[in-house]
Structures are given as C-alpha cells and as structure tokens.
Amino acid sequence: MTGVLDWLALAIVLGWAGFALGGSVTAPPVATAVALGMVGLVLLARGWLPVAGAMALLSPLGVMLPALALRHLAAGWGVPVLPFGTAELVLFLLAYLVFLASAMGVVPADLYRLGYAPVPVAAMVLAVCAYGFWSGSLFLPLVAVLGQALWVMGWGSSNWFDHVLHAVLVPVVIVVLVLRAL
C-alpha cells in the first residue's frame, strides 16, 4: 500500500507542476488538462527513467507536498484558501533550517529522533492542531493528523517528520517569500 501512496503522491505533485506551468500561459481548464496528462504519465509510465528518477529524488513524499499541491490547485480553480502569512513562512523556514541542521548533526541536539516516539509526536500534533484552531486554518492540522495516522499504521517511514515535512519545502518557501517581496 505504501508504494501506491507514494506513486499517487508523486502523480499529484507532478500534476500540480504541470498545472502551475500550464497555468502560467493558459486558462485553468487547459492547465488542468496538462496536470491530468502529468498524472497519467506518472501512473502509466512508472518505469520510464525521468518518472522513476523523480520518485527516487523526491521519495518519501509524505503528506505535505501533495497536500500543498492540491491546495494550490484548488486555489487556481477559485476555491477560497487562507494564505500563509509572511511571518508564518519566515518562522517556519528558520525553524525548519534548524531542524535540518540538527538532523545532519550540525547542531548537537537530534530533533529528528523525536519523530520516532509516540509521546513527542502526539504533543507536536496537538500543538499543530492548537495552532490551526488559533489561526482559523484547518490545513496544517489535517496534514499533521493524516501524517500521524499514516505513521501509526506503519505506512511509509517510521518517522513522523517524514510524513509531514520535506526538504523541498525550503526552496518553495524561499521562492514564495521572494515573490512576496517583489
């Protein structure tokens, strides 16, 4: 089941990339057709080197990247989406960079290992849910809870962070911040 979820997640992310690229020059219906073509390509041509390479590069995709892709697709179709604030993005970027540094051994504390233990994971999920309640956003709590559900069921990584975070978020957040500054 994990393999199916990984391929579905890759199809969503690459479909979103097709939608974003197609949407830069066409209307949403045409961009959606491009996105569906990308989804079909991923699901039907898994053995093709570029598609398999994308999976090797991005795996494990977890919950966050596909959820962000679906959120952006919905916004492209006019669904009201509560945007992340600039301060939220800056704070996330700084915290995530510290987290990545600790996971690589640059910082003496290993924060990544907290993702293996049930009590810290439960506390982090509750904290994200409380933040979502406070901010009026359901997106992050849904990602945190879905990531926890997959983690508890043993689908995918044995570390909760692998379900809810991805290193690709760093350049994505930087690009969003740069575009907001322009």
UniProtKB/TrEMBL annotation:
The chain crosses the membrane at residues 30-49, 56-77, 89-109, 121-151, 163-181. Keywords: Membrane, Transmembrane, Transmembrane helix. It comes from the Bacteria. This is Uncharacterized protein. It comes from Roseovarius azorensis.
